[in-house]
Amino acid sequence: MFSCCLVFQSPRFKWDSQVQGTILGSYFYGYIVAQIPGGWLARRFGGKLPFGLGILIAGILTAITPVAATYHYGALIAIRIGEGLATAVCFPAMQHLLSKWSPSRERTRMSTLVNAGAPIGNVIVLGVSGFIGDYLGWESIFYIYSAITGLWFVFFQLFVHSSPAEHPSITDAEMILITGSAKKILPDDGGAAAATKSSVPWRKILTSPPVWAIIFSHFGQNWGNYTLLTNLPTYMKNILRFELSANGLFSAMPYLALWIFGVASGYASDYLRHHNMMSTTNVRKLFNTIGNAVPAAALITVGYVGCDWVAAVALLTVATGFSGLTQSSFQVNSLDLSLAYASTIYSLSNTFANVPGIVSPYSVGLITAGPDGQSIFNWRIIFYLSGGIRVFTLIVYGIFASGEVVPWNYSGDREPVATQ
């Protein structure tokens, strides 16, 4: 079966689909190898500084991207690897911040609200980048977002603190709500010494079935989402025949749904848990099952709607939206298991989970390579592969996941943290 439209080629960058897949996946080369060090940095220095510097460095590299791309695609690959190295610390640092700042009764909704920044960012970027590129040139997209990143860094450093104990104006009532104690215990050496005093129980972490349940589910969900994130614009251009501005607008719709479903799931899951309607374990399993099964079915169905862009966009929106429910399952599950090692667990999970960031776009490049590569039949293979992986990993999570605190959580963390 032939594609219903021609393969798009930029007038400046004539890269085939395999080169494009390598460029898209190169970010994850750096991102994967720096995950475990990123978790260590979060425990060593707290969440604030590593998170802020990671985003700032990535913003600087973003400003260099147009020059690198013009020079050679190898230079662009190097830049994207550097961006991956810089941002690898961000999610482990975020988990560390949440472990310090989130009361148990509000932990899921706080996590989903924080994670909601990613899909909202995609909505804005995909919605306006096409217009920016059309009117100001494609290079301006990178310069504008880089400048915004620098401005964000200033405000982040001014207003964010790594823990309640380090906040200069926190009240006793707020301390009790967050940590369960009004006593402010500041770690020695600004937090560095205390953070590394207790060694990470790697053997217990690596032999924990609930930890591996998180890893499997994280892997499956990321495979599906990275397929969409890195290839959705290509699919919409080559199969649905959208121009640049329309491509950006319609590509943003699924991520708006992701934001809505993600935030709503946080409030719903906390309601179910704290009204004793379901245990934390069952809540995590429920949201993970729905958040993977529905996207898998929707993605497979996309392969059978041909060039009906209304049905395709609707199904892609449903797939991405429902995947937001996983923000109330494995994405917050490390905080259930261990507040002391949440950043470490997440960094381990994110290491495995981002392998699809390399393999998924590369596999899409291989499947869609050649003059007849951009066909509905080939994209059908891609959607079946993604859906099958999600279903398998949700089954593993349903069997082995847990929402209970693990025994090795209690490592003598010096700052009091409320677990109930």
Give an overview of the whole structure.
The protein has 420 residues and is mostly helical. The protein is built from 19 helices and no strands. α2 packs antiparallel against α17 and α6 runs antiparallel to α13. The N terminus and C terminus are likely disordered.
Q: What is the mean predicted local confidence, pLDDT?
A: 82
Report the structural category: mainly alpha
Helix coverage percent of residues?
over 70%
Distance from N terminus to C terminus (CA atoms, Å) equals: 57 Å
Low-pLDDT parts are 1-10, 188-197, 412-420
Percent range for β-strand residues:
under 5%
How is the main sheet built? none
- Overall geometry comes to globular
Give the SSE order as H and E letters: HHHHHHHHHHHHHHHHHHH
Radius of gyration: 22 Å
- Tell me how many strands there are: 0
Number of helices: 19
Write the layout of secondary structure elements.
Blueprint lengths: L16 H17 L1 H11 L2 H24 L1 H15 L2 H12 L5 H9 L1 H20 L1 H22 L12 H8 L12 H6 L4 H5 L2 H30 L5 H31 L5 H23 L6 H15 L6 H8 L4 H12 L1 H13 L8 H25 L20
Helix pairs in contact: 1-4, 1-18, 2-3, 2-5, 2-17, 3-4, 3-5, 3-8, 5-17, 6-13, 7-8, 7-13, 12-13, 12-14, 12-15, 12-16, 12-17, 12-18, 12-19, 13-14, 13-15, 14-15, 14-19, 16-17
